[in-house]
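Technical annex, item 7. During the second reporting period the consortium partners agreed on a shared format for inverse folding records so that results from different sites could be compared directly. Each record opens with the tokenized structure and is followed by the designed sequence. A conforming record, contributed by the partner at site C, is shown below for reference.
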């Protein structure tokens, strides 16, 4: 059974302009817990005192999920995380040759000494702490460095090794640049040394491949996958929570693992408080994700929704709908009229056609027609017009 680590509160808050107050953080954590996420990464307490407070508050909230803090590979940072009573600590340090030379100005052995020192310290302070060591920018680090750093980290007490594709460089389509290759190689190499950490993956979306890479890693045996609500995060963000869950179910995970019907409340809450709108065509969660529009589509789904849906909206606790506009056909008007309680009028084909023409005309304003709010008066107007025309014919 794969585990999901949600990083909306850590990586997601690294989206420019996003800030969640401690109260909002707690609410988001509760909602993630209700959905069934396994680990909630809340933030780095060394960044700000308020983040430290939020971590502590969530760690003390009695949630089922493990609550984690993020930390630089430094003892003073780790101590701040431990002071927050977390169950989980994530320490990251890159062993890419370029980073070692250009930024840290140390050699691989010195880097490994630092990683070992920090992890051993954390383990000693809190032996039951779940410790993750992340190979930042792993996909652009020499495999030997990755293996050496990972095995040293596990020997020092790391329970989880995370392969971070920090810059979204991975692709499932080039074997040696694929995250599955890193997962498999690392597992095999560590097993050969009798080391059995859980393997986590953290995929960025710079080339739009975060989800594909995460699923590639899943197929290769990754144990934990990182996500954020709406895929929030640095630059182009990371894997989207809802998209990952749906695809994992598609690939054989049980849908009983997660309460998917709570996803839309969570997304609306995060969207509202991050001030980032959910794209209408966002898969699964967007307001158009199960909305059918063009005439030929609506006619087909009126017979069987599966003709234009590969996903059943019921799994998310929602229903499909129709939209009205220039692309609409006759059936959409019939359905929409029934939806607003004017099914009594659909027998009048001329009236339905008149409404259709009116809808097409209105659609030229370029914004969506609100069926609940606008259709009743359109129907009324067209109905009156029909009655007048009938009256005139009788005169
Ligand atoms: C960061 C980089 C990071 C770390 C991931 C991790 C990445 O923002 O600090 O610690 O597991 O993408 O490498 O998010
Ligand atoms: Cu990241």
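Designed sequence (site C submission):
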């Amino acid at each position: 059974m794969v585990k999901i680590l949600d990083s909306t509160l850590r990586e997601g808050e690294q989206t420019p302009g996003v800030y969640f107050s401690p109260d909002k953080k707690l609410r988001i954590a509760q909602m993630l817990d209700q959905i069934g996420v396994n680990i909630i990464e809340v933030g780095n307490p060394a960044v700000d005192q308020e983040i430290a407070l939020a971590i502590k508050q969530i760690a003390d909230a009695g949630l089922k999920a493990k609550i984690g803090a993020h930390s630089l590979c430094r003892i003073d940072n780790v101590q701040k995380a431990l002071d927050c009573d977390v169950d989980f600590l994530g320490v990251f340090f890159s062993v890419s040759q370029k980073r070692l030379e250009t930024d840290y100005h140390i050699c691989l052995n010195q880097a490994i000494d630092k990683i070992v020192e920090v992890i051993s310290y954390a383990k000693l302070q809190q032996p039951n702490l779940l410790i993750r060591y992340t190979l930042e920018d792993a996909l652009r680090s020499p495999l030997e460095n990755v293996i050496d750093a990972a095995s040293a980290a596990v020997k020092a007490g790391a329970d989880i090794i995370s392969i971070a594709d920090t810059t979204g460089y991975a692709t499932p389509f080039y074997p040696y640049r694929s995250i599955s290759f890193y997962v498999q190689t690392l597992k095999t190499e560590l097993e050969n040394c009798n080391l059995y950490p859980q393997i986590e993956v953290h995929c960025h979306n710079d080339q739009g491949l975060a989800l594909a890479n995460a699923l590639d890693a899943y197929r290769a045996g990754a144990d934990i996958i990182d996500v954020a609500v709406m895929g929030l995060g640095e630059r182009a963000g990371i894997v989207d929570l809802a998209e990952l869950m749906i695809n994992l179910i598609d690939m054989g995970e049980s849908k009983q693992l997660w309460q998917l019907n709570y996803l839309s409340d969570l997304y609306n809450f995060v969207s509202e408080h991050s001030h980032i709108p959910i794209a209408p065509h966002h898969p699964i969660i967007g307001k158009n994700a199960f909305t059918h529009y063009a005439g030929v589509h609506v006619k087909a789904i009126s017979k069987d929704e599966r003709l234009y849906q590969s996903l059943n909206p019921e799994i998310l606790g929602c229903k499909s709908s129709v939209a009205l506009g220039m692309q609409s056909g006759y059936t959409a008007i019939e359905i929409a009229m029934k939806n607003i309680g004017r099914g009594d009028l659909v027998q009048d084909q001329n009236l339905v056609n008149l409404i259709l023409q009116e809808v097409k005309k209105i659609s030229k304003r370029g914004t969506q027609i609100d069926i609940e709010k606008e259709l009743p008066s359109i129907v009324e107007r067209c109905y009156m017009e029909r009655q007048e025309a009938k009256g005139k014919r009788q005169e």
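Strands lie at 3-6, 39-43, 66-72, 88-94, 130-136, 160-165, 198-203, 224-227, 291-292, 321-322. The chain has 14 helices and ten strands. All partners now use this format for quarterly exchanges.
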